């Protein structure tokens, strides 16, 4: 494992601060999983934490943008979003089946009151963070 450098846009913290408390804890937990996954990957040396479409997002040199957010129109759930033109979510469905709730080709949906399958989600995160290096593999290296 290499040494990970995280570049964080200060605006990200403002978005976190605006979430309701219970939501902030859940989104911060997703953030922690992304950072842990990146730290476990030798090929990821820089993780950029920024805002895309106003949502906390993570970008790596060889990855696909990974976003997370909560919407007040669906107050009981939050999500991790993936580029819908990628094969990420369809691969997660293939590998993990009903371990997660999916939204089309773009998201894994979490209910506020549910426990997340952490190990499996970290594999999804790793696939996104290295997507352009593994997109030709049947299961994206999972």
Automatic annotation (TrEMBL):
Q: Pfam families from the entry? A: DUF1801 (PF08818)
Ranges for domain YdhG-like come to: 24-129
Name of the protein described by the UniProt record: YdhG-like domain-containing protein
- Tell me which species this is from: Zhouia amylolytica AD3
């Amino acid at each position: 494992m290499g040494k990970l450098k995280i570049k964080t846009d200060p605006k990200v913290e403002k978005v976190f601060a605006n979430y309701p408390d219970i939501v902030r804890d859940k989104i911060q937990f997703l953030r922690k999983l992304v950072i842990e996954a990146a730290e476990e990957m030798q090929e990821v040396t820089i993780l950029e934490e920024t805002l895309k479409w106003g949502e906390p997002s993570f970008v790596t040199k060889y990855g696909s943008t990974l976003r997370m957010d909560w919407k007040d129109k669906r107050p009981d759930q939050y999500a991790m979003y993936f580029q819908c033109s990628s094969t990420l979510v369809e691969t997660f469905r293939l590998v993990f089946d009903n371990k997660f709730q999916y939204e089309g080709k773009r998201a894994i949906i979490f209910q506020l009151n549910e426990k997340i399958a952490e190990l499996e989600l970290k594999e999804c995160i790793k696939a996104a963070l290295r997507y352009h290096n593994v997109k030709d593999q049947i299961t994206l290296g999972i």
